[in-house]
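Final report, Chapter 2: Outcomes

The project's central promise was a pipeline that accepts a single protein chain and returns its three-dimensional structure in a standardized token representation, suitable for archiving and comparison. That pipeline is now operational. To close this chapter, we reproduce one record exactly as it appears in the project archive, with the input sequence first and the structure output second.
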Amino acid sequence: MTRFLAYLSPAVGHTLPVVPGLLELRRRGHDVHARVLPELVGPLTAAGLDVSPLDPRILEVPVTDYLAASDADRLASGQTDLIGRGRYDGPDLAAAIEEHRPDVLLVDCMSYGALTVAETSGLPRATLMPSVLPLPGRGIPPYGPGLRPMRGPVGRVRDALVWKVVERLFGKAMLPGVNALRREAGLPAYRTPLELYRRPDAVITLTGEPLEYPRTDLPDHVTLAGPVPWDLPAERPAYVDEPGDPWVLVTCSTDYQGDEDLARVAVAALRDEPVRVLLTLADAYDEAGLTSAGNVRVERFVPHGQVLPSCAAVVCHGGFGIVSRAMAAGVPSVVVPFGRDQPEIARRVTEAGAGVMVRPKELTPERLRTAVAEARALSDGAAAAAARLDDGRGAERFADAAERLARIAPRA
């Protein structure tokens, strides 16, 4: 038996995808403990995990990147906020290590302080990445801007040049704060942000083809486990099965990012169309100012896994959780990427033939209405993408990668 300690960032979209892998480790007889968002302690305990809440001071540092006026400012603001949280998540992981005495650490990629403490601990450690992999590779477009793959000599030159630009932009936003944490811990400074994914003993990425581009030179320490959709236990809403027009699911980010305009435009675009619209607004519920009327049903939250089988299309912000769920269910998507990793994820959807992208600056009722029709015409492509993406073994691959870490001798 191995003692695993998972330290997860205070984001639902970074927590739920990890749950099946942790449950699989428990099923195999290991001792597993996780630090999680306080509101998830009860549900995850009921699901069979041993969990405790993150330090509440972490949540007192808000992520405010959605207030920025430009992409560069958004990147810088988001990194500043994550560094601020790192001042608390590092000591929180140190306290969890002292309490649970783990053999192996599994740490979310956004918990910068915890990643630093994990490195100083000398314990075998993995970085958990519940999104597409931000590492260069042969034929892999530069991460972030959502560029199309480009083959041949021109593509290789473009990728080499733009990767350097991307690396510099992320480094400017990320490295000063990350390296301050590392200096305080007695660790050498990172020279590039890519070291976050090159230094750990393992990186477990909860994605796979076609959301991940084909990689022919994947580093040995990186595992593409595949997506592992998981919902908090809930009953399937009865209204989903009522006869009527097909459903279109419209969803905003679980972690607020100021994307309520997506919901408002969707209502204007689809209220007179022969569809039923289900809006799930999460933290944008109060900001959106929308109520159920006509063919539109407004909810704060509905487990997406319960309703996706009944949907003809999904309209979303491009968060990895909803995109991977929709693709795994074979439901075509309209992706409106507002920021963060969303432009990159949106491009993966279009390249897979599983949906269309609408840029936020182009978001109008007319454009969105057309995009939904275009997406629904891609149902065959979405079904083909689902067949490639989800083979039902994601939790097993996650657990296999975690167990391999247990064979690494602790370092002094």
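Archive annotation: Residues 382 and 411 are 46 Å apart (CA to CA).
This record, like all others produced under the grant, will remain available to the consortium after the project formally closes.
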